[in-house]
Amino acid sequence: MSTIALITGGNRGLGRATALALIDAGHEVIYTHRGDPGEKIDAVPLELTVGDIETYDDFADRLRGVLRDRFGREDFDFLVNNAGVGVHATVAETSVEAFDQLLNVHWRGMFFLTQKLLPLIADHGRIVNLSTGLARFTGDGYAAYASMKGAVEVFTRYLAKELAPRGITANVVAPGPSATDFGGGVLRDNEQVRAGLAKVIALGRVGEPEEIAGVITAMLGHDTRWITGQRIEASGGMHL
Ligand SMILES: NC(=O)c1ccc[n+]([C@@H]2O[C@H](COP(=O)([O-])OP(=O)(O)OC[C@H]3O[C@@H](n4cnc5c(N)ncnc54)[C@H](OP(=O)(O)O)[C@@H]3O)[C@@H](O)[C@H]2O)c1
Predict the structure, then answer these.
(1) For the chain, what is the radius of gyration of the CA atoms?
(2) Which biological process terms from the Gene Ontology are attached to this UniProt entry (predicted)?
(3) How far apart are CA 152 and CA 162, in angstroms?
């Protein structure tokens, strides 16, 4: 029986790279998207806006339908909570609206989506939650964003403890700056920003989506089954 992964925000960026890496590794993939599902890949797209908690019952129903009709299963194996946005503002400038948007997708949305999906995750399944290097070191203008990710890291430790009796592991992957659309694409497209960051990254450059996807895939693999409640940073050694 093949293993099934569910990735939020799998239409582009790190979520898309992770979907492709998991497919390459022989897993079945279901991914969520808000609007455009992205270029067609060998995976099942499902619409979901993370943070719209009132739609989660309907999402779980649609997911159950896919699991049953397409895979003959009642559960899935890997949950990757990836969807997210960045907001760049100092503490002094952060608006209530921006704060609430971050809270809703990164923290409130992830918490209750995970809660909703717990009965659908198979025993001995795996959860990977995306955080950020910015939850360990500081970067100008990321107080609200990084604080939400800090909450994700604490949540993940509690999740690991609570789900251990079912043999389910829960870990955090915390990427450093990675070349995606994130932050308007500056980490991919702005050579000045990339060069500035390269100076504080031990390995001397920003990360590529495939490098983060590789770490997430490894954390879902058989060889990492004894790791739970941990934070794995994939930043090329930023601010060591
Ligand atoms: N790239 C980095 O440098 C970096 C570093 C550390 C951590 N991260 C984290 O890694 C994750 C992925 O980031 P990325 O670099 O792949 O960013 P990205 O290229 O901007 O992609 C973000 C993805 O999240 C989805 N998304 C955003 N808000 C959503 C919502 N409310 N509901 C559903 N989907 C939503 C987007 O969907 P749409 O296409 O519909 O917008 C898109 O699929 C995020 O949690 C981010 O905080 C990224």
Answers:
(1) 17
(2) fatty acid elongation
(3) 15
Please indicate whether residue 50, judged by its CB atom, sits closer than 6 Å to ligand 1.
yes
**Domain extent listing, the chain:** 4-234
Query: With contact defined as beta carbons under 8 Å apart, do 33 and 50 qualify?
Result: no
Among 118, 125, 126, 102, smallest CA distance to 50 is for 102
Whether residue 187 is predicted with pLDDT greater than 80 in this model: the reply is yes
State if residue 45 touches ligand 1 by the CB under 6 angstroms criterion.
no
* CB 105 less than 6 A from any atom of ligand 1: yes
> Smallest Cα–Cα separation from 234: which of 208, 195, 198?
208
What confidence tens digit (pLDDT) does each residue in 12-31 have? 999 999 999 999 999 999 99
What is the pLDDT at residue 60? Answer: 98
Please tell me the distance from the alpha carbon of residue 31 to that of residue 11, in angstroms, as a whole number.
Answer: 7
Q: Are 148 and 103 in contact (CB under 8 A)?
A: yes
Nearest ligand 1 atom to alpha carbon 11: 43
What ranges in the chain are assigned the alpha helix state H?
A: 13-24, 56-71, 96-102, 109-117, 143-163, 186-189, 191-198, 209-219
Distance of CA 210 to the CA centre of its chain: 14
The model's confidence at residue 1, banded by pLDDT at 50, 70 and 90, is confident
Q: Which CATH number fits domain 4-234: 3.50.50.60, 3.20.20.10, 3.40.50.720, 2.40.128.90?
A: 3.40.50.720
pLDDT at 192: 97
